[in-house]
Amino acid sequence: ESHIGEISFFKVITGKVTEGMELTNNNNQGKERFNQLFVTAGKNRVKVTEMVAGDIGSTVKLKNTKTNHTLALPSVNYTFKPISYPEPRYRVAIKPKNEADEEKLGDVLNKAHQEDPTLIVEHSKELKQTIISAQGEYQVNILKWHLDHVHKIETELFSPRIPYRETITKVAAADYRHKKQSGGAGQFGEVHLVIEPYVEGAPDPTGFKLPGKEIKLNIRDKQVIDLPWGGKLVFYNCIVGGAIDARFMPSILKGIMEKMEEGPLTGSYARDIRVAVYDGKMHPVDSNDISFRLAGRNAFKEAFKNAGPKIMEPIYEVEIFVPSDRMGDVMSDLQTRRAMVLGMNSDKGFEKITAKVPLAEMDKYATTLNSLTQGRGTFTMRFSEYAQVPAEIQAELLKAYEEAEKEE
Question: Which domains, ranges and CATH numbers included, belong to the chain?
Fold first, then answer.
């Protein structure tokens, strides 16, 4: 609170706490003094001089103590297990209406998480959004009210983007020449490459037969890269006869990685691809790292679009617990969400439904389930796998991405 600072709530487990007592934080070995003790009821606080086991109270101005920390006498070396919080069931993206409030919003959200650990804040580099994960819509609405009225930050809430992935389904080759002349030293780099889907355990390629072209490969070097966003990239240097100097291969790989970080279809991460650079050209004066980085990037982009590209979506395994009399409504709703039901069990008037559901179909599901079951239904969800989106949805995603690119 603005006039007294940070308020910390605590529960006395054993013994007693008295005003002025100094305790040790067994999580970080810091010292904390309880200068004041309060019994709190709503916004009202009653000052007391001591509290005993079982009491719940509050104090102010603790220096380095956070939620889940254990305070004890210096002679007591014991730390309680952290509270186990339920997994979030509701996700929403947030941004300030005024860009000047972005830094302030970030600070307030981080503080909100410290006060309520079930409120998880993620600044997603991939999705370029700030995402709040919570237990339900009501919890998020309370947060928004505080942002708007207490901190004076006007905000907007909207559905989070989906972390799609892009990959390929067949072999394709492409050549790309980057050439730029502007007076002095120019830029020149030409890359010929072939790409194919990565399959765990598959032997290294020796060549490919494509329409009107046969490519033979002589692998000189191989790099297997575990991508930070999942999946693999296997990069083969198959250059023979000095067509491209070995010193330019890292630049070609860098260009390919740049395009995998912003996939050719929708700008999503690409994964599970093998790339073989088998030929190219260079110039004794104009060839440099940037030339081959751009040539590699654009050759990969061109090959990707001809390799049966597909968009993959995250699939979650969802467990839903509902009253038996609401089973029909919940099952009907799942059918509209492209769910694949894995099983159902009955127990004491409740039904447990296990299903796999695309994350894109789980938007605001906590609110829907609450409405369908009159507040008696609950669910949990955890990531399962990536799977190809249906053709009609892929077409919609491609169209939306193209329109967004035009607007930018």
Answer: 7-72 (2.40.30.10), 90-158 (3.30.70.870), 166-308 (3.30.230.10), 311-391 (3.30.70.240)
